[in-house]
Amino acid sequence: MMGLFENFFRAPPRKSAALAKERLQIIVAHERGSRRSSPDYLPTLKKELLEVVRKYVPIDQSQIKVHLDREGGYEILELNITLPDEEQRLSPPRQNGGAGV
Amino acid sequence: MATVIVVTSGKGGVGKTTTSASFATGLAQRGYRTVVIDFDVGLRNLDLIMGCERRVVYDFVNVINNEANLNQSLIRDKRVENLYILPASQTRDKDALTKEGVERILTELKQGFDYIVCDSPAGIERGALMALYFADEALVVTNPEVSSVRDSDRILGILASRSRRAEQGENPVKEHLVLARYAPERADRGDMLSVDDVLEILGIPLLGVIPESSTVLQSSNAGVPVILEDSSEAGAAYNDLVDRFLGKALPHRFTSIQKKGFLKRLFGGG
Lengths: 101, 270
Ligand SMILES: Nc1ncnc2c1ncn2[C@@H]1O[C@H](COP(=O)(O)OP(=O)(O)OP(=O)(O)O)[C@@H](O)[C@H]1O
Ligand SMILES: [Mg+2]
Fold this sequence. Notes:
The complex is a heterodimer of chains A (101) and B (270).
Chain A: H1 2-9, H2 16-35, H3 41-54, E1 64-71, E2 74-81
Antiparallel strand pairs in A: 1-2
Chain B: E1 3-8, H1 16-29, E2 34-38, H2 46-50, H3 60-64, H4 70-73, E3 75-76, E4 83-86, H5 99-112, E5 115-119, H6 126-133, E6 137-142, H7 146-162, H8 164-167, E7 174-182, H9 184-189, H10 195-202, E8 206-211, H11 214-222, H12 233-245, H13 262-267
Helix pairs in contact in B: 1-12
The structure holds adenosine-5'-triphosphate and magnesium ion.
């Protein structure tokens, strides 16, 4: 009972929208930062890589994995290209068989 | 070529279905052949808001599973020409939506429609991802409230990284902010985020501000999209939104406190 009256007569609190905005700006900036682990150019990079590799080996989209990781101050770009079985290839591969870059 | 528009938000209950129904109705009223698809598999509601719940025979999942064709499952709106509804299934689980299935249906719909509006379910799970995957444009529905704004920002991140356009390296999905359930007097008092606050945080163009309005509840009770109540504020706001989407430069309304009448200004204080 008392609580109700107290709330009723208490001086208006500090504008809560200002507080909301401040908190949102901080959390959103933080979350965007960690999202940047997938920068805008990754899809294009992947597409262009696919085109280059296809000049030599027939592969499809699912055989290229591009991934960017953040560790401390480093960023690690990881490319994984799975080559098809020997007999599925159109032309003989170069003899360095590099699947991971 | 048809345009696919997803109505999305992350957070639940912010007004996606209300917006999808009114937006699709508004496009159709202006002469565009429009279909609105309910992606909320298991929790269909769009049919109720559009007032066609008793005419649902087959649904989206039936078409994906080849148990019915599109003609059998599309519901033609009785009030507005050019408007069709593709209801969600009430019984299946979300796994029923496959990327291939959704793509096949959208491709077929693109033959006959100008606009395909996808009403997304809440969350960032399969249903929501499927609803946004093929989108060309997105209406991001946000309430002026912390958790809604944060979730909208997450959805913007997903649109930018996990949509088909992002994956294929095409032009990004075009984003539009729809600020719904806005109460200017509360924003003015400083206890609700203002239009400018939300714009500053999310940083995407504002398509429309829909005021908090009791007409929305009344019109969903009646199964009439609120845009058809054009004498109401919410209806007028949705009409402006559709016109803006189609390229008209209209000033935003209902974003500040209604001007008081002369007498009220004289005697009414404040
Ligand atoms: N502008 C508004 N003014 C008042 N009430 C509103 C407004 N917009 C939506 N509502 C109400 O909010 C509730 C949720 O709306 P709606 O179903 O459109 O949200 P949703 O985002 O589709 O929800 P879900 O995430 O569950 O699919 C409904 O009761 C609706 O009447
Ligand atoms: Mg909904």
